[in-house]
Design goal:
Order of helices and strands: HHHH
Strand content: under 5%
Number of strands: 0
Largest sheet: none
Structural class: mainly alpha
Helix content: 55-70%
Radius of gyration: 17 Å
Shape: flat
Length: 100
């Protein structure tokens, strides 16, 4: 289950990474994306903030009844949805599904 949730986080975060223009160097893209105060470097806080925000959005998405908790049913529903999304992506790219 932990593997599936971690994979789902990567799947959900992929659009943010892929949306970065490829015309500049990776270092410039890193700074442009994460250097919130524009001082030319990325602090730990700047680095983790988007990740924390993504985790908070993901938790809110999983918490279907909005009670501030994710129960087994919600986790199972999320896991199945992520599994379907992963399979759709694999099919789109012609990859076979991993054996379970």
């Amino acid at each position: 289950m932990k593997y599936l949730i971690a994979t789902a986080m990567l799947v959900l975060a992929a659009p943010m990474v892929l949306a970065q223009p490829s015309q500049s160097s990776p270092g410039a893209a890193f700074l442009r994306t994460l250097d919130a105060d524009g001082n030319g470097s990325v602090s730990r806080e700047e680095f983790v903030k988007p990740q924390i925000q993504q985790i908070e959005r993901q938790f809110a998405y999983m918490d279907k009844n909005h009670d501030g908790k994710v129960d087994a049913e919600e986790a199972e529903s999320f896991a199945k949805e992520m599994q379907q999304r992963i399979q759709q992506i694999q099919q789109k790219h012609g990859e076979s599904s991993p054996a379970h």
